[in-house]
């Protein structure tokens, strides 16, 4: 079968001529080049001989290991999460839910950096460029006034055009750049809507290239989706150097900054902040936030039944968590299990273990278990404190305020050690706890001022805490009353 070539001929309606319309294809820019903004050269033209020599391959033994001077954010908690401060030329992505305080944190950080002078003779201060694609300059100025971040060296710009943003960075050459947010900046060189995968990838690549070329650190604000993941392509998290998650409960003022990815420091650090109407304040010692009544140091209040303190690990930080429990008689066919800050699936398991191995039947009761101040007791090391609080509430026997319980409960009723027990126990001694009920340790640990009671089974642990129920009812091997 012979296929003839089909040629389309157009007629101009104005003059009636045929074949005068020619097809035109716009030349696409070469890879790695960007359209220059007014007064700005393209990335291809800005490559110098020094850049070429710096990118040449060298033996690893000839590469220097000089210490890079980091830029302080003005928050010791923020600096610790970043690994000691902001590395020059790095790109950090700050993600979090709407209204959690991402913009407030970064605007206050911008004010802190702009407030610090760059040299000892106080002649030159750091310049910070804050680019907002969501708010106008006046709106950002109002928020800066509220949180005391108004500084003459803090430059504000409101734009959604990528070329304009890159031109401002090259023109001002600040010590720090903040772009709020990556999903609102649009490049005219690629197709796609604002916040789409193509646009976000292009914007991130251009900002990263500018940061590396000019050796200027950049903070990017990232939106999150409904399930809590960072919006945009997954490659965005691979391109940047640091990914931090700013999280917290909207009903409390506590905010946590976690490092999910960090090329210049650990990824298990966490920073604590307190959100207020005047801005964000760092909490250098959050231990007292999760304890009611001032903790064990206060002796003016009597212990309350249904409470027990444990110590959890959040990164390199050990935090005391007070677990509160309430046990009531159920009037429903199916008893209620309401929890807050505790894993709901473990409550059902621990209740069954408590019935089988400690002869304390709570299966027909309504159980309410909660932590205070938004604390999280979801790791297995909190099991012993949870069952102790339930047993204390059921038997109406309070646990001493100076006593804590740390350990994991197995289905066989054994108490197992939690990771980094010595680190938790030293924090307990620092806060004033005098007794700790723990599982048997493989290596003996001595903590000054802290009495350690090792309990291998759940029944022994409850007896050491003074909340074991005394029952005269004999039971068979299955644990049921005879």
Automatic annotation (TrEMBL):
Keyword Zinc-finger assigned: yes
GO biological process, alphabetically ordered: proteolysis; recombinational repair
Residue span of motif RadA KNRFG motif: 261-265
Keywords linked to the UniProt accession: ATP-binding, DNA damage, DNA repair, DNA-binding, Hydrolase, Metal-binding, Nucleotide-binding, Stress response, Zinc, Zinc-finger
Domain RecA family profile: 67-224
SUPFAM superfamilies on file: P-loop containing nucleoside triphosphate hydrolases, Ribosomal protein S5 domain 2-like
A GO MF term: ATP-dependent DNA damage sensor activity
InterPro entries per the UniProt record, alphabetical: AAA+_ATPase, DNA_repair_RadA, Lon_proteolytic, P-loop_NTPase, RecA_ATP-bd, Ribosomal_Su5_D2-typ_SF, Ribsml_uS5_D2-typ_fold_subgr
GO cellular component: cytosol
Binding site for ATP: 96-103
Highest taxon of the lineage: Bacteria
Lon-protease-like, as annotated region: 366-482
Domain topic, free-text comment: The middle region has homology to RecA with ATPase motifs including the RadA KNRFG motif, while the C-terminus is homologous to Lon protease.
Protein family (similarity comment): Belongs to the RecA family. RadA subfamily.
Function noted in UniProt: DNA-dependent ATPase involved in processing of recombination intermediates, plays a role in repairing DNA breaks. Stimulates the branch migration of RecA-mediated strand transfer reactions, allowing the 3' invading strand to extend heteroduplex DNA faster. Binds ssDNA in the presence of ADP but not other nucleotides, has ATPase activity that is stimulated by ssDNA and various branched DNA structures, but inhibited by SSB. Does not have RecA's homology-searching function. Plays a role in repairing double-strand DNA breaks, probably involving stabilizing or processing branched DNA or blocked replication forks.
Protein name per UniProt: DNA repair protein RadA
């Amino acid at each position: 079968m012979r296929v003839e070539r089909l040629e389309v001929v157009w007629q101009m309606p104005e003059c009636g001529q045929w074949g005068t319309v020619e097809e035109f294809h716009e030349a696409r820019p070469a890879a790695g080049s960007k359209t220059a903004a007014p007064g700005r050269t393209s990335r291809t033209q800005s490559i110098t001989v020094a850049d070429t020599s710096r990118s040449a391959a060298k033996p690893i033994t000839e590469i220097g290991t000089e210490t890079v001077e980091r830029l302080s954010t003005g928050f010791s908690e923020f600096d610790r999460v970043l690994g000691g401060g902001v590395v020059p030329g790095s790109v950090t992505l700050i993600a979090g839910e709407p209204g959690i305080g991402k913009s407030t944190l970064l605007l206050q950080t911008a004010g802190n950096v702009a407030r610090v002078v760059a040299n000892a003779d106080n002649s030159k201060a750091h310049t910070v460029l804050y680019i907002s694609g969501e708010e106008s300059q006046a709106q950002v100025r109002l928020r800066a006034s509220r949180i005391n971040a108004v500084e003459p060296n803090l430059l504000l710009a409101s734009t959604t055009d990528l070329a304009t943003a890159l031109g401002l960075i090259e023109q001002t050459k600040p010590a720090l750049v903040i772009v709020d947010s990556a999903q609102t900046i649009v490049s005219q060189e690629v197709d796609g809507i604002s916040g789409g995968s193509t646009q976000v990838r292009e914007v991130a690549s251009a900002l990263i290239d500018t940061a590396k070329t000019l050796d200027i650190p950049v903070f990017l604000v990232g939106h999150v989706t409904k399930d809590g993941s960072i919006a945009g392509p997954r490659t965005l998290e691979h391109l940047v150097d640091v990914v931090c998650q700013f999280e917290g409960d909207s009903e409390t003022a506590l905010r946590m900054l976690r490092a999910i990815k960090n090329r210049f420091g650990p990824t298990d650090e966490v920073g604590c902040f307190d959100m207020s109407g005047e801005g964000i304040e760092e909490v250098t010692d959050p231990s007292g936030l999760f304890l009611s009544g001032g903790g064990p140091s206060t002796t003016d209040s009597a212990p309350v039944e249904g409470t027990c303190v444990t110590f959890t690990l959040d990164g390199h930080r050990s935090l005391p968590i007070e677990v509160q429990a309430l046990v009531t008689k159920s009037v429903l066919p199916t008893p209620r299990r309401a929890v807050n800050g505790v894993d709901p699936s473990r409550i059902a398991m621990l209740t069954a273990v408590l019935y089988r191995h400690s002869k304390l039947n709570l299966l027909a009761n309504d159980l309410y278990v909660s932590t205070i101040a938004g604390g999280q007791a979801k790791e297995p090391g909190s099991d012993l404190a949870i069952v102790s609080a339930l047993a204390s509430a059921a038997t109406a026997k309070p646990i001493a305020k100076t006593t804590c319980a740390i350990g994991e409960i197995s289905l066989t009723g054994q108490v197992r050690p939690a990771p980094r027990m010595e680190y938790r126990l030293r924090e307990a001694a620092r806060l004033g706890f005098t007794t700790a009920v723990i599982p048997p340790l493989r290596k003996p640990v001595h903590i000054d001022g802290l009495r350690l009671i090792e309990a291998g089974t759940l029944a022994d642990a409850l007896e050491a805490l003074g909340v074991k129920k005394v029952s005269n009812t004999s039971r068979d091997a299955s644990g049921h009353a005879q």
